[in-house]
Write a structure and sequence with these properties.
Blueprint: H1 2-19, H2 23-43, H3 83-94, H4 101-107, E1 109-113, H5 120-133, E2 137-142, H6 144-151, E3 159-165, H7 167-176, E4 186-192, E5 198-203, H8 221-243
Antiparallel strand pairs: 1-5, 2-3, 3-4, 4-5
Helix pairs in contact: 1-2, 1-3, 5-8
Length: 246
């Protein structure tokens, strides 16, 4: 736990160094941005192949302390992190975070607005059809608005959360990091906003963001490929719902 906090502190100090106005800090920040852009040109999808190969472990001029490479054991949970340690780590990182809570949540969300004229049910039906086509099994729906209307506001907007899953990818992910169960199954929420527009929203996570990480404990190429595929299929399901594809 102590080593983990030291790593977070080192990362925070690096942000401070790179973000300093003027002097060598801003020059390093510009160099880091340029190097990241070069990596993205190689690691992100730009036509072919459909799932690009991951870049090799990064070894650049900026060396941040990382844990050693660990032995992978299937279905092994990591030790819990205390609330106090999380609070201290996040408070340290928040010093360099310019976002409000609403902005941070928006950053973490991928969303699409449904085309005008589509009904809520048409959006949902299109999602389900596309999910079935893409081998994303529909595993359930939650309808919290019904209870909210009963106990709080009878005019509350309709909001439903649909769950989809690629069961084989789920099995692989839980072998590698069982803690990921908190994000499973993949969910797409459909909600009417105050203007009557219908939005489709999901958690935006992309394992390619980790391509720049110097940590040696990297997921397998097979799991990375599957995770990218799940993210891309969720995008296609939302697109189908937003367009009313049948």
């Amino acid at each position: 736990m102590k080593n983990g906090f030291q790593l977070l502190l080192a990362a925070g100090l690096s942000v401070l160094l790179l973000g300093s106005a003027g002097g060598p800090g801003s020059a390093l920040a510009q160099e880091m941005d340029e190097e990241t852009a070069k990596m993205n040109a190689k690691s992100y999808y730009h036509g072919t192949p459909p799932i690009p190969k991951r870049l090799p472990e990064q070894k650049g001029w900026l060396q941040i302390p990382t844990p050693p490479k660990e032995k992978f054991i299937k279905h092994q949970f990591m030790p819990p992190i205390s609330a106090e340690a999380k609070m201290k780590a996040m408070q340290s990182l928040m010093y360099y975070n310019p976002f409000s809570l609403k902005q941070m949540i928006n950053f973490m969300a991928a969303k699409k607005k449904a085309a005008k004229g589509l009904s809520f049910d048409e959006v949902v039906e299109s999602m389900k059809m596309k999910a079935n086509e893409l081998n994303m099994k529909f595993v359930g729906v939650s309808t919290p608005y019904k209870i909210i209307r009963e106990i709080y506001d009878k005019n509350y907007p309709r909001v439903e959360i649909y769950s989809f899953c690629d069961l084989q990818t789920l099995a692989y992910i839980l072998e590698y990091v069982p803690e990921f169960i908190v994000f499973i199954p993949c969910k797409i929420a459909v909600m009417e906003d105050r203007n009557g527009d219908i939005w489709l929203v999901t958690l935006d996570w992309d394992v390619r963001w980790m391509d720049t990480s110097p940590n040696p404990n990297r997921i397998s190429d097979e799991l990375r490929k599957r995770a990218i595929s799940v993210r891309e299929r969720l995008e296609k399901i939302m697109e189908a719902g937003a367009n009313g594809d049948l």
